Amino acid sequence: MLFSLAVLLLSQFTRVNCTGDTSDDLSRIDLHSHFIPPSYRAALVKYGYGQPDGMPYIPAWSEESHLSIMKDANISKSILSVSSPGTHLVPGDDELARTLTRDVNEFAADLKKRLPDQFGFWASLPLPDVEGSLAELAYALDELDADGVVVMTNAHGVYLGNATLDPVFEELNRRNARVFIHPTSPCIGDGKTTQPASPLALYPGPVIEFFFDTARAVSNLFLSGAIQSLTSTTFIVSHAGGAFTPLIDRLVEFAPLVRNPDLTAESIRATIKKQFYFDLAGTPFPDQVYGLLRYVDASRLVYGSDYPFTPDSSVTGLGEELNHELPQVFPDQGDQKKVLRENAEALLK
Ligand SMILES: *[C@@H]1O[C@H](CO)[C@@H](O)[C@H](O)[C@H]1NC(C)=O
Ligand SMILES: *[C@@H]1O[C@H](CO)[C@@H](O)[C@H](O)[C@H]1NC(C)=O
């Protein structure tokens, strides 16, 4: 997520880069963009998420506005997902979560059915409700033609990699599913009872904590050992991995202490290269992306707009910045095409 403050800052990019197009086809596939159906918006407000993750408001969204930003930002196809806080809104209320999840998934499925060239979707799951999530993933993948699922970094304090979620991840793995990992605010809890974890609460969650929660969740996938049995799952991690990559050597260093001596730098590298993609939503340029490029090459990066949490002018501004930066990071035009669309095409097949 990037927000209004960034609009001013970023609008300059639209003016800077009028000449530097190196590829004639700038079209891109967006694996990180959000939809906000009216019923979901109403539920967010009703259950206390009118200012989600400390943000000032829930942004406006409509099918028309989404198609319009796609046109402006050269996005040929968008894979839509529900953003933070996901669809399990009240700890312990699985019924509400199941209803809301079904509702947003059917909304997205209808969009995909009507406009299959423009839209796909990552289906939501009512995690940490395991039984509800198993039912919903089967329905979404078998009946609704979802392209995969979206999971938040934690579900009321249950982090990805926690053994209580194993049945869901085992089933996703059995289906060779694509799992899009999206950040949410950190939380201390066991899925039913929770207490907020909001250090430096004066800053909205996306500013700092989203990157840390991404690092926390992906680290837990490795440290817990859960990842070892998920060899057929494809993960797409938001925001170039957030703060994950600087931690990798440290995870390895501490692996024996957390009873996971099998975790080595080589095993992490191999898993990431084989099973992980990283989207470029947010601010990977000019600097963040270089840490990630110590672990993966152009074949593992995909485009993400984060619309509408990143507002229109920032989506186009960041898109222009990407057009400008990409040839500097990847001089090879083939690599540029991979990042903009070919990797996404391959992974959606
Ligand atoms: C899983 O969740 C339980 C309950 O909150 C917690 O005690 C445990 O440490 C967690 N384990 C992992 C690996 O996340
Ligand atoms: C979209 O494509 C047009 C035509 O190639 C180009 O002028 C413009 O800069 C592109 N914008 C973005 C955000 O990629």
What would the principal axes of the Cα set say about the shape? globular
Q: In the CATH hierarchy, what is the class?
A: Alpha Beta
Overall number of structural domains = 1
Give the integer mean of the pLDDT values: 93
Structural class, from helix and strand content?
A: alpha/beta
Name the strands of the widest sheet in spatial order.
1-2-3-4-7-10-11-12
CATH topology: TIM Barrel
As a whole number of angstroms, the C-alpha radius of gyration is 19 Å
The count of helical stretches stands at: 12
Describe the main β-sheet briefly.
8 strands, parallel
CATH superfamily: Metal-dependent hydrolases
Task: Give helix % range.
Answer: 40-55%
Bound molecules: 2-acetamido-2-deoxy-beta-D-glucopyranose
- The count of DSSP E runs of length 2 or more, i.e. the number of strands, is 12
Low-confidence stretches: 1-23
Taken as a percent bin, the fraction of beta residues is 5-15%
**CA-to-CA gap between the ends?**
27 Å
